[in-house]
Specification:
- By secondary structure, the chain is of the alpha/beta class.
- It is built from 19 helices and 21 strands.
- The N and C termini lie far apart (58 Å).
């Protein structure tokens, strides 16, 4: 590849964001974190919002740092969470900060939509998307019912990564992978479904053209060039949904793998050449989201490290303790003493996550965890057992034999949970890369620049640039017994 090529990645999660410099040289990839910042939910007027312009300004700040260091970047790429969106006026101005997917206004919207508009099965057959009350379809429908002024006046509706790219370039697009999470896109046609759009009062021209990962959107506007000191740097539509970027970074040798993207959410799935929409996928509420190079990410959302991170904020005795020390204490607690279903609605966004765990254990007749170590052990045991439940369904629905489970994302560095996952699922676990989303973002920019040919070359480079940790199943009989107990508890 010759001299080093630099790429600027923006990776925004539901709690924090980062700007990252990715460098490719002679078949090796290196990442450097330039900036890190909080992404806080803002409660105002009875709703929860994201501060879009604050996120935009953090992107500008990172680009200024590139200029100050006299670096040349080939391009810029942005990935974020899915489902949320921004309303843009006819004069190009942002009408309102976007509502956050954890806002409770859609708590009962799905039932209303299914009763008054389309049936649950009809929606699934069109989209293949799992039913979650914060999917864009239901957010938009509820906003229409509420008479939301921003939506009423919107000339454009842009998903979060597309809105940030719009602020940088002035060009409006609808990136395929993030659009696929909305429950508005039909994976069989590859475009937004006009019937579903009409049901929420939108027309197709109010959303940008479908754009596949690796496509150039435009270059920085003169205003952004002035603010950053940079020139007309191209902005690339990477896999705009963070999980799609992360899956692109799975260092797999062949197609026979499953992945677990472990972060605030845990997402377990496979990479399929086609959407899987059938009775089994509908019954188990699996989702078909867009991947790169025409693939489908067939997966299921699991409430991941969200529960742990929220509890950490409430454990006064754990303040000042690092993850390693805290988790080591948890491993000294009795295994499987108390178990929860991480996907119970009780844990969606409670005022007190510790209180929610206590309430769940009381409701199911289990010992209530006392102290941070016991609570932490309960969370990790329960996550691993939930992973087994979903992995069991996934093996039944996949049309190939799954040989290995790749754990990627921030949660992959939790070696206790990695080992628990191998034990519970009975499969070899390969952990890494931790920075899967940022790596996928950078490598898709590299592909757009002609530095790599396809996803398999991307994966070979990634595998050669990181250290993978291997975990084999242990204590099978113990975990089998725990799983049977877990099924009884969550069934109750």
């Amino acid at each position: 590849m010759g001299t080093s090529k630099h790429f600027f990645a923006v990776d925004l999660g539901a709690t924090s964001g980062r700007t990252i410099l990715g460098s490719l040289s002679e078949g090796k990839l290196e990442l450097e974190e330039l900036t890190r910042f909080d992404n806080r939910l803002i409660e105002a007027g009875g709703h929860y919002y994201w501060d879009l312009l604050a996120l935009y300004w953090e992107v500008i700040r990172g680009l200024r740092l590139v200029h100050d260091r006299h670096l040349t970047v080939q391009s810029i790429g942005i990935d974020t969470w899915g489902c949320d969106f921004v309303c843009v006026a006819s004069d190009g101005q942002i009408l309102s900060n976007p509502l956050a997917y954890r806002d409770p206004h859609t708590a009962h919207t799905m039932d209303t939509y299914f009763n008054k508009v389309l049936s649950r099965r009809a929606v699934y057959d069109k989209t293949g998307i799992q039913f979650m009350n914060f999917n864009s379809l239901f957010q938009l429908y509820q906003m229409r019912l509420d008479g939301n002024v921003a939506l009423r006046e919107a000339a454009l509706v842009l998903f979060i990564p597309d809105a940030l790219s719009y602020l940088l370039t002035g060009q409006a697009i609808c990136e395929y992978t993030v659009a696929s999470t909305s429950q508005l896109l039909n994976p069989l046609t590859g475009d937004l479904d006009t019937d579903l759009l009409r049901s929420v009062g939108l027309s197709r021209d109010q959303l940008g053209p479908i754009t596949t990962p690796g496509t150039a959107i435009g270059t920085l506007t003169p205003e952004v060039q002035r603010l950053t000191g940079l020139g007309a740097v191209p902005v690339i539509a990477v896999a705009g949904h963070d999980t799609a970027s992360a899956v692109a970074a799975v260092p797999a040798r062949d197609e026979r793998f499953a992945y677990l993207s472990s972060g605030t959410w845990s997402l377990m799935g496979i990479e399929s050449p086609h959407a899987i929409i059938n009775e089994g996928s509908f019954d188990k509420n699996f989702t078909n989201e867009g991947g790169i190079e025409g693939t489908t990410r067939f997966l299921k959302n699991i409430c991941g490290m969200w529960i742990y991170e929220r509890c950490r904020q409430e454990w006064p005795e754990a303040k000042g303790m690092g993850h390693t020390e805290l988790q080591r204490e948890a491993m000294g607690q009795e295994a499987f003493r108390s178990l929860i279903n991480p996907d119970d609605p009780l844990f969606a966004n409670p005022e007190s996550m510790v209180g929610a765990i206590r309430a769940y254990c009381e409701r199911t007749g289990q010992p209530v965890p006392e102290g941070h170590a016991a609570c932490c052990r309960c969370i990790f045991d329960s996550l691993a057992l939930r992973y087994r439940q979903v992995f069991t369904w996934l093996k039944q629905l996949a049309d190939f034999d799954i040989r290995v489970l790749h754990v990627i994302g921030g949660g992959s560095k939790n070696e206790y949970l990695d080992q628990f996952t191998a034990n519970s699922c009975g499969v070899t676990v390969l952990a890494g890369p931790q920075e899967g989303t940022a790596i996928g973002n950078v490598m898709l920019q590299a592909k757009a620049a002609g530095e790599v040919a396809d996803v398999w070359e991307m994966r070979r480079i990634i595998a050669g640039s990181i250290d993978l940790r291997r975990f084999e199943p242990q204590d099978t009989a113990t975990w089998d017994a725990a799983y049977e107990r877990y099924l009884r508890i969550v069934g109750a």
